[in-house]
Specification:
By secondary structure, this protein is of the alpha/beta class. The chain has three domains: about 160 residues, 3-Layer(aba) Sandwich (Rossmann fold); about 80 residues; about 170 residues, Glycogen Phosphorylase B (Rossmann fold, 3-Layer(aba) Sandwich). About 30% of the residues lie in helices and about 25% in strands. The chain is built from 14 helices and 21 strands. Strands 3-2-1-4-5-14-15 form a seven-stranded parallel β-sheet, sandwiched between helices. A five-stranded antiparallel β-sheet has the order 8-7-6-13-12, with no helix packed on it. Strands 18-17-16-19 form a four-stranded parallel β-sheet, with helices on one face. β2, α2 and β3 form a beta-alpha-beta unit. α11 crosses α14.
């Protein structure tokens, strides 16, 4: 094992927009591990906003386009977001093959996976160039039997291959394609060319990890357990620091749902079923953010549908919208609230929250704000909450929140801060150990 340097230089690369909430956490953690940090991100102006609210030093900020080439004098790379193939539409085109960038930099690296399912069940077994209606898409057929057209919204479509016959189940329709060359190409019912097999991009993740200089991190213990059977030693570091805001006392009487409104990823149906309990809670529910940009908020079909559903269930006067906020405003609004309502359980998004981090949970732990949370999800984070509820029975959690005494609320906050500090200590130990092993 290499001896630890007094100071190591980290090239922190974050090409994905809207992941600025991770900057304070990683810069603080790296600094405590004895590293100085040069952060390359886009757009840098957003990063300046959130980092300006943090008491941090030992870092510099650069535009993504200034990323250095091989031969730089950094000691290692932290790749802030390793996206799964086919789910990278938000990345600039030059950064859609991050493993190639790491190979060119030729430095030891830690790559952070935010969506473990993208590298397991939703990882492409086969990828094709799909020709239809005079255009072309990249079609990915996943391990779990789902399929996805690159740069398109996710939809619950599936595939099945039997011999030379490929079934594509697209909503209520099923397309039958056939191959005569072992799967290199597939043709439609009239013999028209439809699919052309694409080669595996190189390096693959397995090839990348074959070098002991490279490691994977994710953000939860359950996510790491999900990835280890495929990729070996996967570490996990839970984010616990989002800026220096202090701890207001007493909080404002409100419950908050933080995040983007997406019915496929959050349990809004459970919220409507618990309409009477939400009313009896005696405080408004705020949708904090809802969309990232004002233009998106105004045009969002998710926001429009949610407003209609709230009116139908008689909740229009109880549920309010902040509209888009800066990250600093977003964090400050959450930490000054009485309860966080993440609206995640084991049923939404194909069970993805059994492996990935809920931002609502992370913020509640970091700021010590009691949560109304599914028992199954709370257990994954080793949280004992007086306001947890069995999956599907959000009303029970809201009723418990309504009956919680001031002393009970303070006790929940104390336990959340204890868990935060425990996660921070463990994450720092993991980072230090990993750096010693790869450098």
């Amino acid at each position: 094992m290499a001896s630890r340097k007094a100071s190591r230089r980290c090239l922190y690369l974050e090409a994905l927009p809207h992941h600025e909430e991770n900057f304070p956490h990683w810069i603080q953690r790296l600094g405590r591990a004895g590293c100085t940090v040069d952060l390359y991100a886009q757009p840098a102006v957003h990063a300046k906003g959130i980092l300006g609210h943090c008491r941090l030093d030992g870092y510099r900020l650069f535009d993504l386009e200034r990323l250095p080439k091989a031969g730089s004098d950094y000691d290692f790379v932290l790749l802030g977001s390793l996206r799964g193939r086919g789910f990278n539409r938000e990345l600039p085109p030059a950064f859609r093959r991050p493993l190639e960038i790491l190979a060119e930099l030729d430095l030891p690296s830690i790559s952070v996976i935010h969506e473990p399912a993208f590298w397991n069940q939703k990882f492409p077994l086969m990828s094709f160039l799909e020709r239809r209606n005079g255009g072309a898409d990249r079609l990915h057929l996943h391990r779990q039997g789902t399929l996805h057209r690159e740069n398109r919204p996710w939809a619950p479509n599936s595939w099945n291959l039997k011999g030379d016959r490929l079934e594509l189940r697209l909503g209520r329709q099923t397309e039958i394609l056939t191959t005569s060359d072992g799967g290199a190409t597939f043709a439609g019912p009239e013999g028209e060319p439809r699919l052309e097999r694409l080669p595996e991009p190189e390096p693959t993740l397995e090839q990348h990890l074959a070098s002991k200089r490279h490691r994977l991190f994710t953000l939860t213990r359950h996510g790491a357990s999900h990835l280890r059977p495929l990729y070996g030693d996967v570490g996990w570091v839970h984010p616990t620091y989002f800026g220096d805001f202090g701890a207001p006392r007493p909080p404002e009487r409100r419950i908050v749902f933080p995040g983007v409104v997406d019915a496929s990823r959050k349990c809004f149906a459970a919220l409507f079923a618990a309409a009477s309990e939400l009313r009896r809670l005696g405080m408004p529910l705020y949708i904090v953010g809802g969309e990232r940009e004002e233009s998106d908020f105004a045009a969002s079909p998710g926001i429009r549908q949610l407003r209609q559903d709230l009116e139908r269930h008689g909740l229009s006067d109880v549920v309010r919208f902040t509209g888009p906020l800066s990250y600093v405003e977003y964090f400050d609004f959450v930490r000054r609230s009485s309860f966080v309502l993440p609206l995640v359980d084991e049923t939404v998004e194909g069970g993805a929250y059994l492996t990935k981090l809920s931002t609502g949970v992370a913020l509640a732990i970091a700021f010590g704000v009691p949560m109304v949370l599914s028992e199954r999800i709370a257990g994954l984070y080793d949280l004992e909450l007086a306001t947890s509820y069995p999956d599907g029975d959000l009303g029970a959690g809201l009723a418990a929140a309504a009956g919680l005494s001031d002393a009970g609320w303070e006790e929940m906050r104390r336990r959340l801060f204890e868990r935060r500090d425990e996660l921070a200590r463990r994450g720092l130990e993991t980072l230090r150990r990993t750096l010693d092993e790869i450098l």
